[in-house]
Amino acid sequence: MTGMTGEVAHYWSNSALPGVDLLRARFVTHRFSRHAHDGYAIFLIESGVEEFEHGGSVERAGAGALGAVNPGVVHTGYAGVPEGWAYRVLYPSIEVMSGIAADLGAPAGTPFFPDPVVRDPEAARLLRAVHRSGEHGDALATSSLFRAAVAGLLRHARPRTGIGGEAGGVAERMPAAVRAAREILHADLLDPPSLEALAEAVGAGAFPLLRAFRAATGLPPHAYLNQVRVREARRLLDAGLRPAEVAARTGFADQAHLTRHFKRTVGVPPGAYREARAPW
Question: In angstroms, rounded to a whole number, what is the distance separating the alpha carbons of residues 154 and 101?
Answer without folding.
Answer: 7
